[in-house]
Amino acid sequence: MSETPDSVVRTYIEKHRAAFLGDLADWLRIPSVSAQPDHDADVRRSADWLSVKLKETGFPVTEIWPTDGAPAVFAEWPSGDPAAPTVLVYGHHDVQPAAREDGWHTDPFEPEIIEGRMYGRGAADDKGQVFFHTLGVRAHLAATGRTAPAVNLKLLIEGEEESGSPHFRALVEQRAERLTADAVIVSDTGMWSAETPTVCTGMRGVADCEIELYGPEQDIHSGSFGGAVPNPATVAARLVAALHDADERVTIPGFYDGVTELTDRERELFAALPFDEAQWLRTAKSRASLGEAGYSTLERVWARPTAELNGIGGGYQGPGGKTIVPSSAQLKLSFRLVAGQDPNKIEQSVRDWIASRVPAGIRHEITFGAATRPCLTPLDHPALQSVVRAMGRAFGQEILFTREGGSGPAADLQDVLGAPVLFLGISVPSDGWHAPNEKVELDLLLKGVETTAHLWADLAANWRPS
User: What share of the chain in percent tops pLDDT 70?
Assistant: First the structure.
């Protein structure tokens, strides 16, 4: 009896498992820490290593793309079918700093396999999740008998994600023609748990600002002048107090304009996740949950926009008293944004709101950082459904859905390329991203390989982008 495509994939993966893990370990030995200038040469070496390995995998085009910072790696493998979808896979090859004295029980850059887990910096974030695409595409070819992927496959693996991706958007804008795609797959993400595999459907964006408030030209005596001139610290406190209403909704006019509301189906799927709020609070080092009325905790952190005070300062902070009206005060605010919100409009709304509430005699300045746009893919998008089916075949169970409350450079790809962003990751919370003893579960890593082996044929068979 002939083998099924699924059994061919599993047989191929098992046959090449040892070599795959050996190669991954070699890559993890390169300390590509983008945040530390002493490792600039290592980040370049990491890019070179990946470029060579992608060429060995079969990609006919592999290139190192320089930036004003660390290099990115681009690879391309046309399907030969002009009607096939074009898919761009995003990940990163740089890693967080790590040292044995931080609390590692192994050398962070000498990976070890212990009880089915590979320990090493970058094992999960993000080298392991980038590298499973190499074995996955080869297993796809073995199962389909093809000599090229069923989709037009591109990879963009950046080298500065762990440093905030300062040059990433400029790179995407400069190379937009080469990066053109019908869908973007981000393999820099994770699942709810090993027992509950999930697909992320979106992440929030972010805008942040610093507000400087200036009153008297110097600190002045509160007995002589207090109560008779405006106090910038008092103004700062009033601004913060006015930022939310009694239901924890943001009061800035226009803040919720255009927000894509959760559907009933999305709320049902979030509620189906095995969420333990008490455990979540312990992780948050907090004693109670609080947020916008009418929404669950997961809905608040994944699908609702927020305004957060990150810092407040002004006046005397030393020991004892000092009876003054301070000359200045400062606020730091950040706004998490969801699909439908425009960071530029949010910035203008914040500026207008601050200006309307600052009294005469107080001068203010607002400085905004570079914003990140939110991204969201509808549950019924055919490319997302392909990801779900491929994961379901690999894991042998129903795939649920999450979102991410944070922000990342994936939104730049959606914004510049105009393509939906899909998330495909197998990491779990215990993998310890950015922490000592980062690891990846080998069984899950190979499920990622298996997922990608199924994905390309499923996309080609079930989606023909217009």
Answer: 100
Report DSSP state, residue 223.
H
CA distance 464 to 83: 7
Distance CA 132, CA 55 (A): 15
Question: How many other β-carbons are positioned within 10 Å of the β-carbon of residue 159?
Answer: 29
Between CA 375 and CA 414 the distance in angstroms is 7
Collect all residues with Cβ–Cβ distance below 8 Å to 15 and sequence separation of at least 6: none
Tokens of 441: 């579960």
DSSP result, 285-333: T-S----STT--HHHHHHHS-EEEEEEEEES--SSS---EE-SEEEEEE
350-395, pLDDT tens digit by residue?
A: 999 999 999 999 999 999 998 888 999 999 999 999 999 999 999 9
Distances (CA, A) of 38 to 120, 161, 270, 455: 20, 17, 44, 39
d(Cα 348, Cα 351) in Å, to the nearest integer?
Answer: 5
10-67 residue pLDDT tens: 999 999 999 999 999 999 999 999 999 999 999 999 999 999 999 999 999 999 999 9
CA-CA distance, 158 to 67, in Å (whole number)? 10
In whole angstroms, give the CA distance from residue 146 to residue 133: 16
- As a whole number of angstroms, the distance between CA 166 and CA 160 comes to 7
DSSP for 401-413 reads EEEESS--THHHH
pTM: 0.91
Task: Compute the distance between CA of residue 292 and CA of residue 275 in angstroms, rounded to an integer.
Answer: 19
- Work out the angle between the directed axes of helices 5-28 and 442-462 (0-180°, nearest 10): 130
Record the tokens describing residue 287, joined without a space.
Answer: 């004693």
Is there a contact between 460 and 151 (Cβ–Cβ < 8 Å)? yes
CB-CB contact of 145 with 151 (8 Å) = no
Helices (H) and strands (E) in the chain, counts: 14, 18
Provide CB contacts within 8 A for 431, sequence distance 6+. 123, 124, 125, 190, 438, 439, 440, 441
Query: How far apart, in whole angstroms, are the C-alpha atoms of residue 382 and residue 353?
Result: 41
Least Cα distance to 66 among 80, 52, 85, 47 occurs for: 47
Distance (Å, rounded) from C-alpha 407 to C-alpha 314? 30
Strands 117-119, 61-65: parallel, antiparallel or unpaired by DSSP? unpaired
Antiparallel, parallel or unpaired: β 363-368 and 112-114 = unpaired
Cβ atoms of 411 and 372 within 8 Å: the answer is yes
- Please say whether the beta carbons of 232 and 357 come within 8 A: no
